[in-house]
What does this fold into?
Amino acid sequence: MKLSLSRYLVVFGALLAFAFSALGAFNIKFSAGILLLLISIIFISKPILWIYFLCIYIPLETVILNFTPNNIVSLVRYGTEAFTYVILFFCLIRFLRNRRNIKLYSYDFYIFIFIIVCILSIAINRVNITIAILGLRWLIRYVAVYFILKLEDWHLSTHKKIFNVIYVTIVFELIVALFQFFFRERLDIILQPKVLDLGFVTVSINQLESRYAIFATFGRYGIFGYFMTIATIVAAVDYFYKNRNKKSFILLLISIIVLILTYARQAVIAVIISSIYMFYFTTKSKKTKFKVTVILSVIAIISIMGIGAANFEAGKGILNESISKRYLSIFTKEYIQADYSGRGRTYFITKVNKMFLTTKPFIGYGVGMYGTRTAIDYDRKVYAQLGIPIEFSMDVYWTSILGQIGVFGLISLILIFYKFFKASKKIYTVSGGFQKRFSLIVVLLIIAVIFESFFGSNLSDRYQAFYIWLFFGMLTSLENKLEVN
It folds into this structure.
């Protein structure tokens, strides 16, 4: 008998009540074990509930871990990733049992190629098995989400529900961000991440504060900036291509303001680049394009003049920067020189990439051996051998990929993005309604993510990695439905 979502919730509530009533008769560990088992059964039998859960849980994870007892914090933090693969395993069993056909696309081929290159890199470089597993987790932790959506191939209405959950999450994060901005000291007690003792490693976040930077429930302004990249793109597409009303405009305006207040420069620039592409990609009128090009040229000239007046001061940092200097100073010659000499991102993009291309260009030094927390905590051999500084080594995602799995891995990953980019544009061209808007969001998000990956560890962070693979999974399902129709 098939149960509706409401009946699943009733059953879940009954099981929850049973587990808590058991607290009086049994010990806490036993009751907690029963509760986890019952919840697991619900999620395995209804994987969409797990996707809903991840959409809500992942943005709130930092705050949840703040109130999680130390003896189970590692279980909570890594358990969600491990259980996602358990869900995938049962989805695969269901798929094979039902003997359904599955449509494979070119991006599926390159995903498998990427994984094969990772395995070859581990084998050729003889990477320690612990480092290899932790390094693979860093690279493909939420690829399972993509395959869950591909195997389940849910109805269009289900994809709309997933998107609605994301939309509500965005609104919630915007509200928290605004409250944090106006009531900073009171909310920071709850929102500021604590030091996590995970047993095998201690994780602490050096939160750079300023009178402006906000991070909502994400614990760090840069990571929140990556989330706001998604939020602003969603709000922009919603306003310009669905609801041109006051509510959509207010949501877009607040998203832009909050994005700026994150102080995450790469996120702001990524959204600007995506927005310009959105206009030229969706506008057919050459006259309109010409007018906007003239306006953008004027803005660029004014910005260049502002850059000249930015008066960058090396070593001043985020703590004392105003918003204008924060965003304009990065384009000055003085900033670029200081960033290179201080071994910042410019140094890694130019100098360190060259080191990898001249030493181990094709297959890299092995998964987990560079640009990851695993390499820093367990094996710094690559750093010592090439004289690479540890600080900021995780802040350029593309360099991390080049160092670990070489040109072959880098090319296969770029091809994955390129194929999804092409698929998104195709769906946008031939579809309408939700599919059209969603495919446009994916197009813009890919552009933004590729840019951000030059200046951050965005795709190695659980937050943006989850959403990009979730969106890819939704996209492949939508493409399959279009081809069937």
Residues 93 and 99 are 10 Å apart (CA to CA).
